[in-house]
Amino acid sequence: MTMQIADSVSLSASEAKARAKARAHAAAARDNLRTEPRAVRIVIIALAVMFLTVFVVLPLVVVFAQAFSRGLLAYFAALAEPEAMAAIELTLIVAAISVGLNLVFGLVAAWAIAKFDFKGKTFLITLIDLPFSVSPVISGLVFVLLFGAQGYFGTWLRDHDIQILFAVPGIALATTFVTFPFVARALIPLMQEQGTQEEEAAISLGASGLQTFFRVTLPNIKWGVLYGVLLCNARAMGEFGAVSVVSGHIRGETNTMPLLVEILYNEYQFVAAFAIASLLAMLALITLIVKTVLERHLDEGEDASDH
User: What domain of life is recorded for the organism (predicted)?
Assistant: First the structure.
């Protein structure tokens, strides 16, 4: 027993030395970067600022300028239109459904991948990353092939008077498929880094599986969960391609906010289009701020676990 404790202590000490050495190398690399000539640093920073200004700042400025071009009354009047209110409501409903489903899936998938070894683990990780590599339009077409009138389940759905496509269920399914990697991908590396020692200790002390999850695992990953939920929600509200395929563009019924922006813009209703677009832009800005805060908490958690 004493030998095992000594081995574990020496192992943790060696890990601490390795991490300290890695930090020293990183600090040296940063110092080397700072020794670049002043002109080179100025050019690199100027290029970065120019790129962000052209591709990020200016588009946001244009969106808000166009949205408020006719004053606050016109802006709020555009948002108060029944069609706009229906699109906002549908977007919130679909986002709530997809985030809820992906939260459950992400927790289960991350738990399985990080805590257990099994055959097909690499394949499961590949499947989780699939929506990142498949076009959202293709994702929408898959659901058309499955639930459309000529699809695999189309006849059965029609006979039982169940509407999937051109309705909320189809939009929610397409959005869930496109967004399901976000929660899992935020949790998998975090749970892998934490290991299984704390869970094993809790179980050895008599805790049940649920008690271990809610009292040990979940508090350790809460910031990762919020981070994944945040990214999933932002993508769900802004999804266009997959939703466009399965929605049918029924005005006042199946148009989400991104779809309505396109329709209003094509009809030359620029104030209304940019008013709704400004809501999506504000969502992006809020997401960016909250994302920065959550990343800081995640970094603090990693530093605390290192010590």
Answer: Bacteria
